[in-house]
Predict the structure.
Amino acid sequence: MPRIGKYPALQVALDFTGLEKALVVALKVWENGADILEAGTPLIKSVGMVSVRMLRRIFPEAVILADMKTFDTGGLEAGLAGANGADIATVMGLADDATIMSAVEEAHRRGMLLEADLMNHPDPPARAAELRDIGVDIVGIHVGIDVQKKHVLTAAEKASLVSRVKDSFKGPVAVAGGLREDNVEAVLNAGADIVVVGSAITRSSDPGEAARRIADIIAKYK
């Protein structure tokens, strides 16, 4: 299984549609404290699994996450992620248990971790307990981009949910959605194990510096 290192960890979501830009930013954030490099869903859908392969090739020591957001064919898609070099693949927590079980089995067969994204689930703590029993390795509390835009809601505003999910899951909890330098401590104080930051780093004028500042905040909680 991949070693993420000491928690909490910084995951940078490379939610680009062009591979060149994604790799340029990946280099900057990796040099400035990122622990996990995420091939974001837009990147995978735009350029394919080559994005995962290139991240693996260029960053052999990094933990690479393929944000597949799988809803069906769990084993197939986890296998695709693993065959292309991913250490972690994602599946949706709303998916059928059979899909998640299939993804867990294939991920573990390949020595990977499987993360379940709890986005839009009506009862994240209860589902987290079920996912633990299925064998999921990480659960993610995630406020989607469209929800952020429509409701001006960020993951930091759902920080109280983090501790409840941690209590029921008994494993690493990732938190994503609108996290920035000025609000990331809210989820860290609530016990987040993996802090997922996207545009606050990747769309900044200096992604490396932005990553370094957030990594420095996270380091205080290790």
Observations:
- Residues 125 and 164 are 6 Å apart (CA to CA).
